[in-house]
Every structure is written in structure tokens, then in C-alpha cells.
Amino acid sequence: MNSKALKGIALLLFGILLCAGSEEINGTVLYNFGDFPFAAIGVLVGAVGLSMVFSDKAE
After folding, report:
1. Which of 46, 53, 38 is nearest to 14 (CA)?
2. How confident is the model over 8-36, as pLDDT tens digits?
3. How much of the chain, in percent, has pLDDT values that exceed 90?
4. How far apart are CA 1 and CA 17, in angstroms?
5. Would you say the pTM of this structure is higher than 0.90?
6. In the prediction, which pLDDT does 6 show?
């Protein structure tokens, strides 16, 4: 595997982590701030990671 694919997998896993922990992050970190859409950001980060993993561009 090349470095770009590994970075894409890392982004995908980070996006899953943001989606899974969005309620706890909002409750712990941003208790006096409004609900921040960590799940939506996780989906976007995961989509970027998927595009990095499956892109066929040669470097």
C-alpha cells in the first residue's frame, strides 16, 4: 500500500470516530456551546478518506 492509501484509511477511521462519538463530544467538550455537527463533519472527512483510498492517480 502506498502512503496516500494509508492516509485515506486513517481519515476514514477518524470520520467514523467523529460520527460515533458526536454526542459525547458535544456533551463533554462543548457543554456551554450549541450542538456542533460533528457527525456531518465525520461524514465529510470519511468521504475525503474514501476518495484518497480509491483514487487511481499515479504519483
Report:
1. 46
2. 888 888 888 888 887 777 777 766 666 67
3. 0
4. 23
5. no
6. 85
HSE-CB at 50 with a 13 A cutoff on CA atoms is: 8
* Separation CA 46–CA 27 (nearest Å): 22
What does each C-alpha distance from 25 to 14, 20, 34, 35, 56 come to in angstroms? 14, 10, 12, 9, 35
Residue type at 10?
A: A
Q: Which amino acid is at 42?
A: G
Cβ atoms of residues 51 and 20 within 8 Å: no
> Which is nearest to 35 in space by CA: 43, 23, 45?
23
